[in-house]
Specification:
globular; alpha+beta; seven-stranded antiparallel sheet; 2 domains; 16 strands; five-stranded antiparallel sheet; Phosphorylase Kinase, domain 1
Length: about 290
Amino acid sequence: MTTAYSQIEIPGLQKLKSGKVREVFDLGDALLFVASDRLSAFDVVLPDPIPDKGRVLTALSEFWFKKTAHIVPNHLLTSSYAAIARRVGDHEVLRGRSMLVRKCRPLPVECIVRGYLSGSGWKEYRQSGTVCGIKLPAGLVESSQLPKPIFTPSTKAETGHDENISFEQAAEILGVAVAGQVRDAAVAVYQFAREYAAQRGIIIADTKFEFGFDGAQLLLIDEALTPDSSRFWPADQYRPGGPQPSFDKQYVRDYLETLSWDKKPPGPALPPEVVRRTSEKYLEALQRLAG
């Protein structure tokens, strides 16, 4: 197994922020994103990094940013190690897990698109027949395909849990025009990616996007359609009526649900087998989608 990186510091570079997974360094005219191997579940960063995870997130984000640039532009400038090393020096930790990106003004809303009924959406549907206030047909079961993809935004919490909100609440935060713009962009990118992934035996059940503005231009930012931000299900094993096998961190969530953990920091240690299987699932998602 390769070295797993939990904390990443680059000598001489100013760290702007340290997110749940990514380290962000300010280069003046651009940002340097470096994806660590940290894993968060239930909004808590777990103590055990997942080998190769940051490299998978970077490779898949780069793949999707390039694949979907005709739908909405994005913040990626380059993920070439040679180009990045010319800017910041030769640091082996950056290889395969770093991107230079445009600076922009991030929007304070997570843009989630759901094509299937799972996770918090399934919990809300069982209680009220709705997801983020959107009325859905009666009689759906867990993991049912929805009649059409729905846009279900959430708040973006720096700490603690994000909260699902309605489109109307998102419009109050962003303004009606911008909320409509990000909804249309998010749904279009999801539908394109879902059709592409289906040809490779993967169902993208749902995904989370982030957007920002560079001047007046809307950009897709952060990451795109990775196992951290999406539910990936093997199509040949899809059986509505319960949870699905997955190529994402749902495997870790399912393990954590067997523990008597209150989902507050600190997170519990993961057994070596769970770490190994999670790494394999992330790598298989990359292999299937990007080759």
